Amino acid sequence: MTLRPRVVVVTGASSGIGRAAACAFAARGDVVLAVARRRQQLEDVVAVCRRTSPDSNYLVGDVGERPTAETLVAVAAERYGHCDVLVNNAAIPKHQHVTRVSADDVERVLRINFLSCVWATLPAIAYMQQQASGGAIVNVSSFAAHVVPPREAVYAASKAAMTAFTEGLWSDLADTGVHAGLITPGPIDTDIWDKSDERPGYRGPRHPPELVAQAILDVADRRQREITVPRRSVTLAGARLLRAIAPSVLLRAMARMER
Predict the structure, then answer these.
(1) What is the set of active-site residues?
(2) Which of 78, 98, 148, 257 has the greatest CB tally within 10 Å of its CB?
(3) Tell me, what DSSP letter sits at residue 81?
(4) Tens digits of per-residue pLDDT, 139-159?
(5) Which pLDDT tens digit goes with each residue over 212-257?
């Protein structure tokens, strides 16, 4: 019996984690629909994907706009006949002191980082429930949702909303054939660091986006619920522990980092 390749929709696929994920799925023969706003970068990503997955393609669009996000799975299904994996990865940074953030800034971040996930996920659930094979939804959050660094209140809030939404799906989608998984990356080496409104204080190591891409594949393949990247990180585990038992110590350490 010949198994059909999976069809995978990846948002924020023009660079960083999204690019790495799209290429990783395609390297295994999955058909990728790469979604982002930047056409030239998407063409470059799809050119790589087509080396091992000739039917892969791209869709130029802003998932911060509800009509675009809501139609992603339908577009994939129309093109390929089915849609098996949705990766909600699109995000923008907002590293800025809260006294310099506007309400419009907050709304823009929430639309792209959280609401786009909701807008894409709800139709995906309805569609995947009708497939005999079900499907998988992988949401890329951030460690900032658990330990909030200085000047990250808005970004962390958007990712915390995504995290809570995904955790709620674990219960609501039980026994439906649709799996929801959560990726929680720490500091990853992407161009998001170059887009900050104010200089990031973090000076530690940044990990390659390919680590996150592998975690995304593991969630989709093995139906794991949550993976933190890098896995078994002493630094991230220590930060979570301090957050729980000695938050004042953690706050002082992060304040020194921002000086």
Answers:
(1) 155
(2) 148
(3) S
(4) 999 999 999 999 999 999 999
(5) 999 999 999 999 999 999 998 888 888 888 889 988 887 887 777 7
The residues near 172 (Cβ < 8 Å, ≥ 6 apart) are: none
Predicted confidence (pLDDT) at residue 117 exceeds the cutoff of 80? yes
Q: At what angle do helices 116-130 and 153-172 cross, to 10 degrees?
A: 20
Using CA atoms, how far apart are residues 32 and 45, in angstroms rounded to an integer? 10
pTM score, whole prediction: 0.92
Mean pLDDT estimate for the chain: 93
d(CA 24, CA 244): 35
CB 188 within 8 A of CB 206: yes
How does residue 173 score in pLDDT terms, banded at 50, 70 and 90?
Answer: very high
Instruction: Look at the chain and report how many structural domains it folds into.
Output: 1
Residue 250 lies in a domain: no
Asked whether residue 145 is domain-assigned, the answer is: yes
Which residues constitute the domain of residue 96? Answer: 7-233
For residue 173, being part of any structural domain is answered with: yes
Per-residue model confidence as pLDDT tens digits over 35-72: 999 999 999 999 999 999 999 999 999 999 999 999 99
Structure tokens that stand for 92 in this block:
């923008």
Phi/psi zone of residue 17: left (φ > 0), alpha (ψ -120 to 50 degrees), beta? alpha
Phi (first) and psi of residue 134, to 5 degrees: 70, -140
Q: Report helix, strand or coil for 139.
A: strand
Is the preceding omega at residue 123 within 30 degrees of 0, hence cis? Answer: no
Residue 241 is assigned to a structural domain of this protein: no
Q: Specify whether the CB–CB gap between 144 and 95 falls below 8 A.
A: no
User: The domain spanning residue 91 has which CATH number?
Assistant: 3.40.50.720
Q: Assess contact for 212 and 190: CB atoms under 8 A.
A: no
